Each structure stands twice: as structure tokens, then as C-alpha cells.
Predict the structure of Translation factor GUF1 homolog, mitochondrial.
Amino acid sequence: MASEECQSLLLSEYTEYGGLSSVAESALEQVEPSVLSWEELRVKVKKSGRELLQGVSGVTQPGQLMALMGASGAGKTTLLNTLLSRNLKGLEVTGRVLVNGNQIGRGITAVSGYAQQEELFVGTLTVREYLNIQARLRVNGSKEKRTKRVMAVLKQLGLLKCQHTRIGVIGVKKGISGGEARRLTFACEMLSNPAILFCDEPTTGLDSFMAESVVAVLSRLAHSGRTVICTIHQPASQLYEMFDSVMFLACGRTAFLGTPAEAIRFFERAGYPCPHSYNPADLIIHTLAIVPGNEIECNHRVEEITQLFDSSEFGEKLQRDVAAVELRAAPAGRQRADRFAQFSALTERAFLDNWRNPSLARAKIIQKSVMGLFVGLLYLRTEIGAPAGIDNINGALFYLVCELTYSTLFGILTFLPGDYPLVVREYHDGLYSVSSYFVSRSLSYVPLFTIDGLVMMIVAYFMIGLNVTLQQFFTCLLISVLIEQSASAFGVMLSTVSPSYPVAVSLAGPLLTLLSLTGGLYANVGQMPAYISWIQYLSWFRYGFEALTINQWSEVSAIPGWSNDTSKRDATLEKLSFSASMLWPDVSIMAAFILVFYIIGYIGLMIRRSSSDYQSSSGYQMNMPRPRRDPRIRINQLMRRPPPSLRCQLLWKCQQRLFASITGPGPSTPSTTSIASNLRARGDPTLVLDVGAYTPDRIRNFGIVAHVDHGKSTLADRLLELSGLVKPGERESQMLDRLQVERDRGITVKAQTVALPYKGYLLNLIDTPGHADFSAEVSRSLMVCDGILLLIAANQGVQAQTIANFWLAFDRSVQIIPVINKIDLKGVNVEKVENQLKSLFDFNPDEIQRISAKTGLNVAPILDEIIAKCPPPEADPKKPLKAIIFDSLFEHYRGAVAFVLVREGSIRRGQRIRTYHGEKEYDVVEVGIMRPDMTPVSALNAGQVGYVICNMKTTKEATVGEILHAVTTDKSLIQPFVGFKPHKPTVYAGLFPVDTSDYEDLKQAVERLSLNDPSVEIIPDSSPALGLGWRVGFLGVLHMEVFSTRLEQEYDAQVILTQPSVEYRAHIKDNETIRKKRYNGKGEIRIFNASSFPSDESDIEKFLEPMVKVRLVVPAEMMGLVNGLCSEARGERGEITSIDEERMLIIWRLPLAEVVVDFFERLKKMTSGYASFDYEPDGWKESRLIRLNIMINGKEVPEFSQIVPGVMAMARAKLLVSRLKREIPRQQFEVQIKATAGTSTKALSQTIIPPWKKDFLQLLKGNIGKGGMERLNKKLSHQKKGKAKMKMLGNVQIPKEAFYNVLKN
């Protein structure tokens, strides 16, 4: 859909429910059009000197919606903060930000609105209440004017339906939706009717429709005459088309500024075309991203694109637009409301927030009521005249002081931490002063933290039976109010001077402990040591407790037994070192405490405000009138551009790319030469490699093959360092193992290539996997190798996969160089390994290399040995193009990447090519080599190994063994490559999501991962128990585990893998009627699971199961045990060869079904890990197969049915039955589990889950005699009949977890 149609549709739908009406728009005053421009902005971190922005310029006109885009770290947020003069502390900023040609610095906050990404509101208010208070702070004028403005904004932003809905508090009170909250953010900014509106990530967290509606609102606001700028992260295609202009940033530089359509054209010219099925924004952002581990290539690409933009017509236009901004009067900014208006609005908001907050108002009152009741019950009607009663009363009074303090103080500690983000935002928006907020918020707590304390005191006062004279009662209430307000003021002070809420809480505990210990109850205040007694004078515990005690015992006539004897009062007070004359001084001191605490709190808040201020840095000109534009400014701008020669080269490069994309490659590429020379001038030879200088006789293509954990990746690391491609310690080890699963397991899964320049030769290294499951990767590598390094670990010797790799290379006539690794380990016998190589492969000791890849010992001569012994590739540069695809991977933004060996001719960017077998034509977008990351080059010539990107949609188009040739070459003249045999899956398993609601996400993950693993076969499947899923074919069990692990690590998918099985085949009897009627005329069918097993076994002539040839390298003393294991697995023994006096090589032919289950685990356990094995397909063998059925109470459960060889049926049946008995819960009736074979009803294994039963012996109460046994038998008979009836009518409830645990691998 076109951009205009999309906006029109969204706006029309939006207006239907109350938003964006013309009436609402007219209610807002017209804004003065404002042009925002910025010139040569440079932002640098003062401490580190790192540049965040590097000479960024731009301009946006009224009526435009501009989007700032780029990958993480590109500089979007830094540019937005610089334009707003916010969050610049610690940064050095140079350049100018202009509004209508005027440099107004921090004054830009008065003429603009800023809708930040984080939505901060007072959640207890309704939408309209919140906007009304915001209007009192933002809009000067009468109440009628503010009301009209609020209504206009409500209508304009579609908030009328939710205007009386509370905004909501996360986790406490549900409120408005995410889209409504985002529009409410815009509404607050629109109250002041700004000419410029900034938005930070306005679509984050919204679904696609709400995101489009929000962008439609911004577009409408922009088209009403405002200037709107927003940052946005990878918008959808529809959103991308809705912007009027886009600015792409990369590494703090401008990569493009213009319309969305112009951006697509520019990047297409730069060699990064966007396919029709791709999102342009995603492709561009991915192109500009700096990928960890691939920084050199990415920085090279970004530098190339930014230079190309500066010299393109788009960059020229940007410079002209910035220079052409006219000097006009800056728009009038909003003015702050007067102090009284600020105070009244903030006070109203604070009171509403306190009283509507259920965790504050109601909770505090209920808490204090309960505590007052508890204290009253504890000291209920205490005899106040007795000595014990006096102590109890004093204890009750001190507890009341503590209760008034602790709950109040910890409740008030959220005073600033909860409000601080919103306060900072509104303060720096210029809405109010710090004093207005502080006074209003402090006053809002006074009623709340007065009423709750009074409730507690009143309840406790009369229940305890304290003196009930009217004067003493009200004096007690006054003292309690002062105590609570002292705690409140202290909490305010503590929350403002502490940097965070946890710090405030951690300080409050020790301080309260000190103040309470010196409060007069725990220690006599008159007998404290001098070095500690001073703390009592800072404690309101002491003054509050003293005042309450004096007030209680001052009226002696009301105390029974005292008979107006004031000496008893004085003795009671003297016991605590209190004086009866200190009542009102104590009251005065507590009032002074309140005042001092609030003053300190205010000072702390002012300090916090200053330390978090959005300050401009030195060098950033602010609040200075801009001089009339001088003609010399234009000259200086021209002089700051690249020199003419470089500009001409870059322009020529752009034209060449555009020309090449239309007509094919040109005769020369000066752009590549100029960039290469620039890179050489920077002194980094690893960034560029002139592959055109290497003729076929100067090229060697070799690989490294070995058994698992023999050191292939470590040796590859050393070779990369020797060639100078990377520096020692520059990257982490196992540089060519790029997958997380490879690093976690310490194995190589995917073959990797890298080009190594060495002594005038180009050595193309291929690092291959070592496990038998990934032998397909080794086969692909050998397609393009003229030599291999056969690596053997000195501590392990020749292993099974070593032998398999040798014969793979030997069959292809590849030069083999044996290398013994890990010779630095203690106790290794190198001569023993040499003898093994001699006896098995006929290698002479003098041709064996001995190295330590870990330490680098003797590694350097290996490269010389490769050059000397490996033949150059058979290649002819004079013939037309012929390139062989030997591997591929999939990138989500560039499609399939084909790895090729160029046999003949050359392939270059812009060339039109065709696939031999697929007969599809492509335009080459990029060619390059691996160093070890993708590095683009101008062309790949005969004999060279590299990659080709040509907009192939999937890796299925880049089939291994496919031939690429020029479209001008006659297909009949091309000799296809016949040396590669495609590998087919041997192991199959069901793949299902743990949660069925995750099916679509898992489907996308499986499809994406399978694009990078073409050896995986995926067939849709379903299960009534597990839901929708797939039957997936793998090369082996390890391949299956790696695939599952990659799903979890790379796509965060939670999956269930069922037990692996193999493919069986069935030959149908040579009966035309049977074949046509039941099997669609097929003479042979494939069987993957029980559902595909023939229903009538009489139709089958014979069943076939796959066999494998297994090579086992085992210690000689354990050969008997291993042979027994293989015999038990229905194997046929083959040759036995002695490797040396300690180890034997045994060949067995085994059914694949036996190998994929637990053969390897049993072999390792039996030989204590000293045995190794390798296997390869070895045809089919006739076998007796049966379908194993699971019956539960006579009903078959298809999910548990399996296909097993007849000899395995009994063991598998017992295993399934025992698992089901453990997983199925007991029912109210008996549950019978039975495993049967085929159509037979005879049980191979069965068990019974007993039902729940009622204990009738308890009903008899031990009375067995006198008819007790008769009643018991009668009850049991009735129960038995009931259970039998339930068994006939009831269904067994099998929980989903039972299916998971029984079927999982």
C-alpha cells in the first residue's frame, strides 16, 4: 500500500472513535512554522575522548515528519539529546543547533515538546484529571481556555473514550492500554501547542496496528504545520513509507538524509539493493550495523557509504539546504506558570495521589488501627498506680513512639525515589520550580500521616486506661502528631540526601537504632557515657517519650494510690532522668526538628537537581544571538568537504555501481583502488587484499581434517596468526567456531573457510568438523581442496574418524600431509603414533609433521609444507566463468550466501550469472573472501575460493555441487561436476513446541535455522497430544542434538524432541490390485512412524531396515566386550586389523536402529571412554518389523505406538509400559496398560495401576466381631461393583506431562 493510502486509511479509522477530528484541530491555535537545522555537530566524551557524533548536519522543515534511524550505538539518542540540550553532562559538544536560523540553546525546551520513550504519569489520576493539572502548569490563561485546550487535545489524540479512566499503576491498578498511554504522552506535550515536537521511540512495545496509528497521529501533527522528529527502531515497511524524511546514522556519521524512496535508491546505487520481499529499513540498518567480531568489515562498509553520501547529489542537497536556512524570528516559547498556580496544581495532584493510592492511605490507616488495638489488648486496663503498672505504661508509651516513627518513616522513604523520574522530567521541561514541588508534596503527607497516628493513639489510649482528663488527652494527641511529623520530615530528608531508595533504607535502619536506643527506655538518659549521650539530643524518640511520660504522670490526683502525692510523680520521672518541667520544651524541640529536617531535605533536593541537570558542555554556544549570515560561511563549508580528487573518485564509484547494475561490469574499478589505497595509507594491511595478484599457480586450497578434539580449531588459530591475518591474543580462541553450540561443546559443526596470504601465495584454509554426523561437511570441503592436513592427537592416536577422513581424501586423490599434534603433553608416545600411521596408511616418519598447536611449536613449517606438497588448483582464467558451489549459509537481509571455487574465468560484482541445474539467472551483488569475516573484493578469479551474494532467496537455490556460469555461455559447453553425492538424513525425530501457543514462533525459528542447514529434512506433522509439529530428518543423533540446542540458544525456543527413529522400507507384493488400491501403484513404500505402517501386513513381501558400516577403534583387552555389544545389537562382524600392540580396528555391520538409540553411550561406558567409532551407510537388510501398540483399558493410544524390529519388541514394550505406569496418575478405577504386537491381542508386557480405595476398616472402628466382617465384605463388594462400572464408563485421564516424559528423547 502506498504511503498516502496507508495514512488515509489509518486516519479515517482513527477519527471514527473520536480522534483527529477537524473540530479538535481547529480548537488549537495555529503554530508558527519553525525550521530546525543543525550544523557540524560533534559530541565527544570528555574522559575517554570517544566521539559519539562526527560532524553531523541536517535540516527538517515545517510540515515534515522525520525519523532518525540506525543500529544500536549509531548516535540516534545522542543526536536527539544534543538537539534538545539534554543529558549532555560529561560530554564536549561543538556545532550549532538553530531554530529559524537562531541559536537559542536551552531555550529550545520552551518552543518544543519532547515525548520520551518512558511513560511517566501519576497512575492514580484519570486521563482528564492528569491533563487538567498539566494544563494548569503549561497553559497561561483563564480556566475556560485551559478546559477548551484539554478537550481539543483529547479529541485530537483519540482519548475521549478513556478520559474518565484512571491511568493505572503497574502491578497495583489496571489502567489504560499501551497505545492510549503513548497518545497521552503526546497529549501532555500538545497542551502547550509547540511548533517542534521530538519523540523518542514512539512505537516501542506496541503492536503493528497501534504502531501505525501512533505514526499516523505524528504525521497528522506534522502536516498541520509542526516540525516533528522521532527516533525509531527498525519500523515495519508500512511505517517506513509514512515518514516524510529519514536520516540514517552509522558510527556517529550521516549515512543518508532524504525521503524513504530516495534512501532505497541511494543504497541500491551503493551496492545494497533491497529485494521486493524485504523491509527496506531492516536491510539498511543491518547494512550499517557494527557486528561484534566483524568490526573491520563493518567499519569499512560504513566509511565507504558515508563518504559516498557526502559526495552524492543527496549530500550536496543537504549542504545547500542547511546553508539556505533564512534568519527569522524564533517562535515564542511557553512561559512558566506563577508560583501560586504551580503550588495549587501540584498540591491537588499530590493529595489525589495519596488518598487514591491503596498501598498508602488505606493501608496506613488499617495498619495503625490494628496496632492500636494490639497495644490496647496487650496493656488492657493496666493498674497504673502499682510499680509493675508504671513500668508497663512506660513501655506502652515508648512502643507507641516507635510505632509512630517506624511505619511513617519507611512509608515516607518513597517520597523522592518514586517521584524523582517524573519530577526531573517536568522540572527540566520548565513546568515548575523545585520549591513548589517540595512544599506541595510535603504538605500532602501531613493529613495522611496525622490521621493514622491519631487513630492508633485514640484506640490505645482508652483501652490501656491512660489518664483521661481532657487536657492530658489532647496534649497526648498533640505530642503524637509531633512525633509522627518528625519521623515524616526525617524520612523526607533521608530520601532527598540519599542517591537511591536502597541507600535510604540501608541508612534508616542503623540511624533509627541509635535514636531509639538513646530514647530513654533501654538506657537511662542521665547515666549514659559522655561519648554517646550526645545522640539523645538529636533523637525525637527521647523528646517524644519524655513528653508522653510527663503528660501521663503529671496529674497525680487521677492516679489510684498516689493521693495527690507529687513526690511519687517526681520519683517516677527521676527514675528515667526526666523532669516534669520539660513538657513544653520537648514539644518546642520536636517542632524545631520538623522545620530543620524539611530545610535539609529541600537543600538535598536542590543538590540532586543540580547534579542531574541537563547541562550543556564547554564549547557548546548557548543563548547567543546569531549574527547575520556572512558570505564567508558558505566558502568555509565548501572548504570543509573532501578534496576534489577524492570527491571525483567517489562520484565515479557511485556512477560505476549504477552503470554496473544495469549493463554489467565495466572495464575498471577506480573506486576499489582508491579505497584500497586509503586503507593502506592508514597502515592496516589486514583490511585489504588484492586477490587479482594471485594467479592459479600461486594458490593452494587445503583443509584440516581430524577426529573430534584433536586440535583442528586451535591449529587454525595458529595459522591465522602466522599469516598475519590476526594478531596473537587479538581475538578469543577457536576463531573459526562461530556458533555458540560449537564453543559450548568444544566441537566444530560447520566448515569454515579463510584466505591466508603467505609469502606471495594465497592459501585457502577450510576447517572441518570431526564427528561422524558431520562427515557431509568434510565431503563438501574436499570438493575444493587439493590437499589436507590429517591431524592426529599424540595422546589419543589414530581414531575411527581419522581413518574415515583418510579414505575420503584418498578416494578423491587429495594430497595428504600427516600431522601429529599435542606433542607438548607429558607422557605422550609420538613414535607409537608414527607406527600407527605407518601400519594403517603407509606414511614414512620423515613425511610426518610433529607440532603443538597450543604453544605454536613447529607450526610455521606447515605452511611451507603446504606450498611445497599441495598442487595448485586446476583452473583456467582464460575460459568463461565456471564456479562450483561447495557450501552456503543464509543471511536474513541478503539471502543465501554461496561459497564457491572458481574453476574457470572470473566472477565480479554486477555480473549476470545462471545456475546450471536450476537454470535461474541472478545479478551478482557482492563477491568476496573470508578473512576470517566476509571481506568484499572486486572479483574472484580462477582457482580462488570465496563467497557470492546474488539475491538467492534460500539455500535450496545454492545447492552443493551446483555450477555458476555466465548467462552468455552456452550450457552445452559446460561440464557439470559429478564428484559430490548429496547426504540424506538417517535419523528422524518428532519436533514439537512445549507450549502449543508457541507453534508459530517455533515454525519461524525452524524455517530460518533450516535455511542454514540444508541437510535437515523437515516434514509437517501433528499429534493429538503434542499438537502441531514436524518430523525432522538428521544426519545423526549429535546432529539432532545440535539442531535442538541452536533452536534454544539462537531463537529462545523451548522444544520437545521425541525418541529418534530411522527410516524403514517395505516391498509390496507383486500384485497389481493391491498396489493400485492401497499404495497408489507403488512397489516400495517408506515408513517413518507407526502411522505410516501398513495396516495389513499380508500385503508386504518383506521389510527392510537400514544398515551401517561401523569402524571401532578399541583397546585390545576390551575387544571381547565390544564384540559382545555388537553381537547383542544384531551385528555382522567384518575385518579386524591391529593398529598397534594395544589397539584394534574392528569393522561391524549393524542396523542403524541399534546405533542411534544408546549404542555410543554403552560403548563409552563399557570401555571407560577409550573406544571411538565412526559409521557410514551400508545399504539395507531384510528384517522382521512389527508395530508396537499401547492399549490402556482396551483402547489404543496412537501417540505411544512405535515401529521396532521383532527382536527388540519385548524390551521396548517393557520400557514403555514401565514409563507409563510411572507417569499416569491413579484413577478412581483400575487402569490396565498393555503392549501388543501388530494386530495380535496377546500382551508382550502389561501392568495394572490400582484404583483409589476407601478405608472401610476405619468405619468399623475396630469392631470386627458382632457382624463387623459381614458389613466389611458387603462394603467391599459394593465398591468392587462400582469400580467395575466406572471402568466400563470412565476414560483414563492422561496428563500432558506423561506424553512429554514418555515420548521425549
Confidence is low (pLDDT under 50) at residues 1-27, 613-688. The two ends are 47 Å apart (CA to CA).
